[in-house]
Write a structure and sequence with these properties.
Strand order of the largest sheet: 1-2
Number of domains: 1
Shape: elongated
Order of helices and strands: HEHEEEH
Helix content: 25-40%
Structural class: alpha+beta
Largest sheet: 2 strands, parallel
Number of strands: 4
Distance between the termini: 20 Å
Oligomer: single chain
């Protein structure tokens, strides 16, 4: 599991491609970090990685508008939650 030494697998795609070439069929290189439905296919194509790791989630904001003033220090979007993007990643 690697991002090619970068913050995201997309940024480290060149390094990952080199690792895949060097590893050959002996072992798999799994690209991970920052993979989304919008970039997963391109990262797979650029790196040659057959295995990809993603959290498969994105933020979804709640419809709740009440904010308890006693709960100080919370970010304005504290009412959100993460939802699975598995279907979107598979479709990509």
């Amino acid at each position: 599991l690697s991002s090619g030494g970068h913050a995201t697998a997309e940024a480290g795609a060149e390094v990952l491609a080199g690792l895949v070439a060097q590893a050959g069929p002996r072992l798999g290189v799994m690209a991970g970090a920052g993979l989304t439905p919008g970039n997963i296919a391109a990262v797979a194509a650029r790196t040659g990685c057959l295995e990809l790791h993603a959290s498969a989630k994105s933020a979804q904001h709640s419809g709740m508008r009440h904010r308890n003033p006693a709960l100080v220090g919370l970010s304005p979007d504290w009412t959100g939650t993460c939802v699975a993007d598995v279907a979107a990643l598979r479709a990509a």
